[in-house]
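Appendix B. One record, verbatim.
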Amino acid sequence: MARRRHRTRLPVTVVAAVALMSTLAATGSTATGAAAAGPGPDRPTIRYTEYGIPHIIASDWEGLGTGYGYAAAKDNVCTLADTYLMVNAQRSRHLGPDGRASPGEKQNTTTNLNSDLYFQRIKDDRVVERLLDKPAPDGPEPEVREAIRGYVQGYNRYLAETGVDDISDPACRGAAWVRPITELDVYRHAHAEIIMGSADALLDGQVNAAPPGSQPQGAGSSATAQPKSTPAPRVSSPGRTAAKIRDAMAVSREQGMGSNALAVGSQGVSGGTGMLLANPHFPWQGKNRMWQSQLTIPGKINVSGASLLGFPAVNIGYNENVAWSHTVATVAPFGLFDVQVDPFNPTMYLVDGAWERMTSQRVEIDVRKPDGSLAKAARTLWSTRYGPITTSMQGVPLPWVVSAHAVRDVNMNNLRALNSWFRLDQAKDVHDVVNILETTQGVPFFNTVASDRKGNALYAGIQATPNITDEHARSCLTRTGQLLFNQSLRLPNVPPISILDGKRSACDWPDDPNAAAPGLLDPHEQPRLIRSDFVGNANDSPWLSNPEQPLAFPRVMGDTSAPRSLRTQELILTAQNRINGTDGLPGKGFTPQTMGQLLFADNSRAADLALDATVTMCRNVPFGHILVDGNLVDVREACPVLAAWKSHDYSTDSRGSWLFANYWSFLSNGQGVEKLPWRVPFDPKDPVHTPNSLDSGSSEVRDAFGRAVLALRRANIPLNAPLSDIQKVTRGDERIPIHGSLGQLGVLNVITPGQVDGKLDIVFGSSFIQQVRFTATGPPQALSVMAYSQSADPNSPHHADQTALFSAGGWVTERFTEEQIAASPELRIKVLN
């Protein structure tokens, strides 16, 4: 779709542009669209096509990084600068200690003060510097170092050309904290992304941990925290603590990052050999935005897709022969150790019958006071041989009394992920993908789903995983740890949390000779499946990647023979029905059109299972009223609204869908699907279709429905309001309707509304969506859409263009070969002289 009104003229003459494209085209392309073996351009070159998508070509890795850094800064300099501020522990200095920071997966999860203390400790310990001092494979490969060196040059070049005072984005225009960056800034950012799977759950607990009888010091003082008399914290029973952590983790998983990915092999593709649907669910604001690009060094690499902003590589995408995506896995990237402490000296703890002294570390940061002056804030943080002490997990207290809890993060010493992604960008087939994942073991907390030109579909749960075998778990889990590790898995998507006995050194994660780093699980023990029909994942465990071939694996990686989420059910059923031709659409097998329909149909599995029973309940309510907290709610108007919602979808024009979403949220209340009042319980022999048949006579169903009707009326939302009137995202003065809904409804196109600047907006959900089809010959055929658009800058022409396209259910036809790029009617070229 041409958008000429958004064209931006760049400093290159028409003659030079034509000459450049002629030269590139003359180098030729293979039948599959691979980069030619000839040399690349003398200077890094960015070719912009429709929707501002950059196709970056260079003759070497440094030049490729330079082009990426320049183009990424052009679109999102404020978001990047804010991220570098965070990883350098400078937020409190510039923005004050009480502002909100997002060091993990979600938005605004802690204070600037706590974020700075956490990252200052990492800086003081020289964690990233020590990793950079190591040769590959523990440290970055040479090509990674070259690309990041170039990235810094490109970012700084854009900043120098533009000037801080002339940045178009008002979020950081003229800000003192916008500055040129160093390579260390980029590696610190990469490391922060790699460890973010543990940051949300444990950051506050680590920086607030203090021995009994003392409390941590707040902002604004230059003194170290002094002990003060405090009431002894109450220690909950193991069962109560485990239940609180389980429930908190369940809510976090619903609100945190997720994804769907479906790989289809030769048996499931119509007119092709393989297909992939990538649908990562990420925040729509902040450091975890994704950004799309194509990266080419002729003869070395030609890859297209998206990355977490600031990574000069493609994290999710495709090359000439392989397409891949990631989904958040049911592996906890951390573990706890329960250490017994001396009641008279609680910084002493017992290991193998001998007392050891915790190490203390004074962490100090600068803090901006209300009058603009600076002060120091300092805390004493505590560690054991296993790792730092924490006094909470996901907000659930873990009191430091007769014992304390230490954290070991499986990714704290992981920069291998950079090597993983650079090598995946050059993979040749799914077997090569498996080899890369096994040898680097750097993917931090993600599954990998891939398809290739040869007709193979791959699921791989090969990642950085704590080496907690089933035998090790049986020997070393504490009572609370047993409950969490074994029972928390009754909630779909909740990872098994380990709490091991720290009194025994043998309970630490053992080193495995086959693993890529100390304390990691043997990658050969981790699940993988290659098939010619399909594999997929929607954040449940690997068990039913394909229900025809259930997988087995160590419990640390997730559950088996347990209920699947409604989103997993929807993914499996739609894949099976399309491949078998039983979905009511013509023919069998996936095409680009039917793959797009799988996602943008916005069908709710919850509505499929429960809408009819809900309508029956509504019609049978005595006198049409439900008593809710002393309020008599008239639901008679709601019955025909739901009865008319026959499509079960969350398209923008659907009516009744918002009412059902509110009702289902009250009914499920963070519980697993099997906890709801079904007449037919979960059956592990039929895991895709059970549980089912909602009990329309249940008081839980009645109460939840009454609460939903009451909530909408109090919000002045008509019960039959179209989704487009409610679920919108703000882009400048425009409010764009967004289709899709919550994952707990079994909707694949996950969209999560929340409060942004005092109004309901989109905070999380489908981000970069891409489908790729391979044929026996010819280049990959790809369609994509960036749901929140390429740029966070409200003055950019690419701040809302793809958002409007996404709203309309449209796709961008990607340009991969040099001929396709040259043919773009929107072609604009920037040569970095």
